[in-house]
Amino acid sequence: MRRILLASLLAANTTIAGASIPKEQLMTPPAGARHYTISSTAGKHGDVWSWTTPDGRVAYRMSMSLRGWVTETDELVTLAPDKRPSAIAIRGYTDSGDATENFDVDANGTASWKTSVDSGSAPFGTKRYNTYGGPWLAGEMDINALVAAGDKGVDLLPTGHAGIKIGQPIEIDGPQGKKIVKLAFITGYGFTPSPVWLDGDNRFFGNAGVIALLPEGYEKDGPKLKDIQDKAIADMVRDVAHDFLKPANRTPTLVDNVLMFDSVAGKYLPNRAVLISNGKVAAVGAAGSLKVPAGTTVIDGKGKTLLPGLWDSHQHVGDDWNLLQNVATGMTNYRSPGSMIDEALSIYKRRAAGDLLAPDGKISVIIDRKDPLAAQGALTVSSAAETIAAVDKIKAAGLWGVKFYTSMNPAWIAPGAAEAHKLGLHVHGHVPAGMRPLDAVRAGYDEVTHINFIMMQAMPQEVVDKANTAARLEGPAKYGKDVDLDSPAMRAFYAELSKRGTIIDPTLTVWEPLMTSDGSALSPEYAPFADVAPPAVVRGWKISGYPLFGGLTRDDFRKSFDKMVGLVGRLHQAGVRIVAGTDGYGLELVRELELYQLAGLTNAESLQTATIIPARMTGMDGRVGSIAPGKTADIILVDGDVSKDLTNLRHVRTVFLDGYRLDGAALRQASGLSGMPR
Q: What three-state secondary structure class fits 575?
């Protein structure tokens, strides 16, 4: 199943490197070709067409610009007599580089494939090749095959097994009037069941979500379909939540003789005892010193580390299953830098009712100028007055912050930030095109998200002026390696950020694979999960890196990434607060902390960026972020000595969430992980 990118923070290149086929050489859909569109509440983002060629092959063509992130691909499929693809040729380019992919079956029944990240061969047998990429609509063949297979499902190449479950029909309106569609869930391609829509004959109809793939004319049905599938998913995760959040898991617990991380002091304390009762930390003392009530569960902490639950300060919450996985990997809190208001309120409501197993946190809403490059899911505005009104709307919804985006008119930032501060809201975001980060901070930003926007302080003006396009990555990739991080101008920049109390959310793990990967191996943030994640997910984690351009080499990109890491270190040295965020699954969080160590932060300082510092940023430090009597028991117990190796944070044994004692292995299984990561 081709990978569908639902959201991304970047804009794609328009200069394509390597052997990828230029747009002009891709197939042109004929008149009358089936036509699907790619859309969101922000508008239309692209098109996909399908048709049958004169020689009987099935052709697809996709063209998309998602906030400037460009995909231009085509696909030609040869069907065997049993209707399985026996040859597939994909060409073009995506945000991850060359999209070339080839699959074929020889006369002896041996299937062979080659992509930009892997190649292989195996007996074809009764299996079905799972493509790495290609136009999204071509996934209809896989969906239709799953329907035809029924309960037995389909074995996949290179590996895996997929199935589908079909739900009840509903009625929607379309260009030809009423139409029956059915919500189905597919398994085998991701961590958890994924929604897809079928027509009345149980054939592929479309996908709905933040980004929708629907037949032309049905775009307005996207939000309705999304609401229906969101409710269906909520019903699934409600049952999971009830299984974990039961009274038997909230009885008193003593963790004794354990190494404990004191996040406030930034120290590891050996031989400690912590008593958890009634959802809170009841007592902390020396090992063996605490008296416990009858019926207390006692956990021997020898060889383990007890820590405040982890924070991901750049987690775009909204997917219920992903929230469950966040808990499984030790995340008890988050800051979402951009969620839709209705989804945010739904998460809060269901979590409070015990119907959603999720971390607790604070949520911002994105505000962007009405523009083709506007962020999907944003409140879009056309003036300073509308900006202020959008800020008021966020406050009225009871949410925590405002996130401005790259297409905002710089003149609207100061009045918008002033209104937000008047209402007690946090102000952060991407830096709008035409502004440098110091301009944004002086206009009212409390925090800047993404290290590339901090690097924008040292970029040429032509890069700054186009920071809502590919320039926001390509500029730092091209010029970053030559930036003098210790120049007087940069040191003055760090000093002013520190003086103003500015917070930085670097998300280094976003840039590491894009800038350093060549497709030969998994990026370090995902490699530890390779043995416990579904095969199709692991394959999708492999990328060939952001396409090279302008004569630059991958080594040039790597040197620029090293400067990004060094920039985090300089900021920390200057006293600028850093909060750890991933802008991903959340699985990347420990690698983010590892990179902070490479930047020069100590083990404890790195861990503080994912514990007490974000708790203070959100104003939640009175109840979470550290282990102390009276605080909420959002705590994790991990195998190993974290003081010696931060990667032990991945070895979650027990999660205490609001005082509930949750088994790490059971959490992993429920969230689609088959075991303990490396």
A: coil
